Amino acid sequence: MGRLYTEDISISYGEKLIVKNLDVVIPDGKITTIIGSNGCGKSTLLKAMTRIIPHQSGSVLLDGKHISKIHTKQLAKEMAILPQTPESVAGLTVGELVSYGRFPHQKGFGKLTKHDIEAIDWALESTNTMEFKDRSVDALSGGQRQRAWIAMALAQETDIIFLDEPTTYLDMAHQLEVLELLQKLNEEQGRTIVMVLHDLNQAARFADYIIAMKDGEVIKAGSPTEILTKDILRKVFQIDAEIGEDPRTNKPICLTYHLIKGEQKNEEVLYANDSNLVATS
Fold first, then answer.
1. Hey, where are the domains in the chain?
2. What positions does the domain ABC transporter occupy (predicted)?
3. Which residue in 54, 113, 146, 229 has a CA-CA distance of 20 to 30 Å to 135?
4. CATH topology (fold) of 4-227
5. What are 112-132's pLDDT values in tens digits?
């Protein structure tokens, strides 16, 4: 069992049930990616696990404690969250932005201590954003800005970092830049990384563990090799995919695919039958 996990969690927006009775375990010290079609509950699950939104039933536990009962500052010392479209105050410098990551550790009037300053500089160095410390966040490119936000998350000095679609709106080079940075943080510092990604090949390349969701349920969770298969992609996305092997990483890669037209209902019936067989075996 990992440090962070859910037990029978359900999440609703108003009357609409989005996530249904999920049991999810986040592996410690690994990169976990959540995949699935739009509206399947990926971001909703991420937000519930970080207490951004409430869940209606079940539990989210960190080190055996319900996160709802952990003090906000204490929880912020354990996990950091980078939302899908973070926004900063106009004119804020990169150094000022990253300093916000020290808020959970501050007391009294919030004056930065020597350790706070060291943590900020370390986060800037780790993300190669030190040269932008005195520059306005608004003046940065998309990739530079995303690295600055990751630096803020690093300055919190948490073991767990959540990112909701960290490559959104970035070009291919900047996407790779951000994902390689997260991989480096995981490999060199042992950070547990949890992120939502849309690109299947990026998920397979950078993740150790993938959670594949559909309609608020987990279809399957496992290694990239276990998830990036014709059968799983058919069930999750209704696509007929051809899977190969990335010659550089030896990870599975989706070479091409086409939509399965008129077969969705049959696929859902087949999946339900598979689930019943598993449940009764």
1. 4-227, 228-281
2. 4-240
3. 113
4. Rossmann fold (3.40.50)
5. 899 999 999 999 998 889 999
